[in-house]
């Protein structure tokens, strides 16, 4: 043991968590309970590591201290420790930034503000060579460069505005990045998520009164249907409470294993919050009795697994499901709708849109889609 040193002294739970993190990075760990006569009721454990592993252990220790347990766990699962906020410089973009920064601060991760742009497909007619009917290559390059410069300046102005909001206390004081990419917005967002795996995407949407304009080609809907990371969507006209004040949630359940996967992801993201959940089944195939039995089993499982939160089962009455859900949301002051979301193909999106897709267009309230 002469080649070991004490890295930290913690309670049992904290010491075991640190041990798991260190061992996941090939650092050998010893845990020794400390008997201190001066403090007979104190539970303390010495975390020991080989001296040769001190450099990597210190880096991991700093990572643990600067991030929530959710951030550490999800980084270990391969995610990048970032939160993506797509913007178009509108007022709704400010709402997305406010919500995104609040979530990033709570989770302990870094926000990235993403803006996309499209270069014009056609160039002005005075740049077309009339003898060959083609656009000179140089003209296209110049035009692309001009468009990139314009968008870069706009993004820099937006970045300055965000920093000003941080300075006057409207936003948490977080280190953030900006990113400018060319392409169709929904395609850029989906491709970015595939490559970099952010922990979450936060997007602002139009209110119900304006969503009819977006029924075809909605960026948020396309991202919901194809993105394999959690998507938090908030309507532009919704008065968003503080993230820490979101306590009343409805989760739409399919009564399959996907529900357990979705809640586990939610609890990891928000670091095991104290909330009140209502479990609402949406599976139409089951008989009423079978639905009730499965819902009770699911509620009992969640209550046992996450004792800090309170879970209720609430099958809606017969009739129009959407109307019943709207009434329930109003009566119980629900603050967030959680939807387990499966990836769908183009055919399904047109003829059998996902639950998340339908909820996005029907309600003016925050929606968290968890991929399953």
| End-to-end separation | 46 Å
Return the string of H and E elements: EHEEHHEHEHEHEHHEEHEHEHEHHE
Looking across the biggest beta sheet, what order are the strands in? Answer: 6-5-4-7-8-13-12-9-10-11
Average pLDDT score: 77
Give the strand content.
Answer: 15-25%
Task: Indicate the radius of gyration in whole angstroms.
Answer: 25 Å
Can you put this structure into words, describing what you see?
The protein has 372 residues and is of the alpha/beta class. The strands form 2 sheets. It has a 10-stranded mixed sheet, with helices on both faces. Helix 6 runs parallel beside helix 8. The chain is globular.
Looking at this protein, list some descriptive labels.
372 residues; alpha/beta; 10-stranded mixed β-sheet; 3-stranded antiparallel β-sheet; 13 strands; 20% strand
């Amino acid at each position: 043991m002469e080649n070991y040193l004490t890295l930290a002294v913690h309670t049992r739970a904290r010491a075991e968590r640190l041990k798991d993190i260190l061992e996941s990075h090939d650092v050998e760990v010893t845990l020794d309970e400390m008997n201190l006569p001066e403090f007979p009721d104190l539970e303390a454990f010495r975390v020991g590591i080989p001296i040769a592993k001190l450099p990597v252990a210190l880096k991991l220790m700093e990572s643990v201290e600067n991030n929530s347990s959710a951030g550490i766990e999800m980084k270990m699962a391969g995610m990048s420790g970032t939160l993506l906020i797509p913007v178009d410089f509108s007022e709704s973009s400010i709402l997305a930034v406010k919500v995104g920064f609040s979530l990033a601060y709570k989770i302990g991760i870094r926000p990235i503000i993403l803006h996309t742009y499209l270069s014009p497909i056609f160039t002005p007619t005075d740049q077309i060579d009339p003898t060959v009917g083609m656009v000179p290559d140089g003209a296209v390059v110049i035009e692309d460069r001009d468009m990139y410069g314009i968008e870069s300046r706009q993004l820099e102005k937006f970045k300055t505005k965000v920093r000003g909001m941080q300075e006057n206390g409207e936003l948490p004081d977080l280190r953030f990045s900006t990113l400018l990419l060319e392409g169709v917005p929904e395609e850029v967002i989906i491709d970015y998520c595939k490559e970099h795996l952010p922990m979450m995407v936060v997007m602002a949407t139009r209110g119900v009164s304006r969503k009819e304009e977006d029924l075809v080609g909605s960026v948020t809907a396309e991202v919901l249907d194809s993105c394999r990371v959690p998507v938090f969507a908030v309507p532009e006209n919704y008065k968003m409470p503080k993230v820490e004040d979101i306590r009343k949630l409805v989760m739409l359940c399919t009564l399959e294993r996907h529900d357990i996967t979705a809640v586990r992801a939610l609890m990891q993201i928000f670091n095991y919050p104290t909330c009140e959940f209502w479990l609402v089944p949406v599976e139409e195939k089951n008989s009423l009795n079978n639905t009730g039995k499965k819902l009770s089993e699911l509620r009992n499982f969640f209550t046992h697994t996450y004792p800090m939160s309170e879970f209720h089962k609430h099958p809606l009455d017969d009739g129009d499901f959407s109307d019943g859900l709207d009434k329930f949301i109003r009566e119980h002051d629900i603050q967030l709708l959680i939807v387990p979301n499966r990836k769908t193909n183009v055919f399904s999106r047109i003829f059998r849109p996902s639950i998340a897709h339908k909820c996005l267009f029907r309600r003016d309230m925050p929606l968290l889609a968890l991929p399953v």
